[in-house]
Amino acid sequence: MEREEILSWLRESDTDRLDALWRRADDTRRSCVGDAVHLRGLVEFANRCARSCAYCGLRADHHELPRYRMTPEEILRCADQIVDSGCGTIVLQSGEDPSLPAEWLADVVGRIKSRTPLAVTLSVGERDERDWAMWRQAGADRYLLRFETSNRALFDRIHPPLPDRRSDRLADLRTLRRLNYEVGSGVMIGIPGQTYEDLANDIEIFAAMSLDMIGVGPFIAHPRTPLGRAGSAGDPPAGQVPPTEEMTYKVIALARLVCPRANIPSTTALATLNRQTGRELGLMRGANVVMPNLTPTRYRQWYEIYPNKACVTESPGDCVPCMRSRIQAIDRRVGVGHGNSRNRSARASQPIEFQEP
Ligand code: 5AD
Ligand code: FES
User: Fold this and answer.
1) Each residue of 195-227: pLDDT tens digit?
2) Which domain, by its residues, includes 63?
3) Ligand nearest 39 Cα, by number?
4) What is the CATH number of the domain that holds 109?
5) Which ligand is nearest to the Cα of residue 58, counting in written order?
């Protein structure tokens, strides 16, 4: 798809024309990845974070937030529940915490792999190649690291670097791919200062990197963060992308069209904007994955990356049945097995490098 076409879809407001985009994305989804919706059991196992991302409620200087790290035994109990509930994948997510020993996580991954049939996805932020290699060796299958925005100046503004490490997430994604992970990334939609041009560029990068997984969601202002406070002051600049539900569907649909075989979740941030039908509409406009939350209830409230997050008051037994009934209600079926990326199998024989546009 040409850049101009991406841009004009992002700016489209005519509902009939948008219906055509939703249909095209849904047809592409059906023919390239089928009707299965894969369940990924999400465990937010720790909320300590060393970074100060300007949008995120887990940022280090949010001192009132109680911090936790689950024990390996608690995580293994979640893994067993995930198996029992019929999910094929566990996603272990946390804040970015350099004091989390790589060996600790490698041990957890190894124990999950030896006692369950689950695929393991890690989402723990920027780390050294040595750590990523250790976790891959321990059996981790996939890694999620959103690049958040391809606008370098905007990225730097909202991600103050650690003293000893300049972020380069596109380079990180290449490293992860070289280590033979299934690689997932994505962006937030409607970050203050993000333009339509930026977002079109993000979508072109999804294609250029041939991502295996693409997760996108609306920016949601958190009052305890600099962007949350700034967001309420004054009018947005011209060309600002709105952090809306509709814009999120557009990006999901366009991601499906530029990466037809990728796994694309209908995310919690989207469900937060529309609790009734957000997940379903995401699935009907290009997505083929959902991530039920299996974090123990007592910890959920503290994994508050943005306010009013969907499913925070539910318990681990609630989300999978809820997702199953939502999937059945839209005439789709629940995926069985790992639900590996078809993109990755198609790419297996091809070179691993990618070009930035
Ligand atoms: N609004 C929306 N999404 C957010 N994330 C973090 N903070 C927010 C927020 N305030 C997203 C980021 C991150 C993912 C785990 O959650 O994209 O990569
Ligand atoms: Fe969590 Fe519906 S998905 S309760």
Assistant:
1) 999 999 999 999 999 999 999 999 999 999 999
2) 3-339
3) 2
4) 3.20.20.70
5) 1
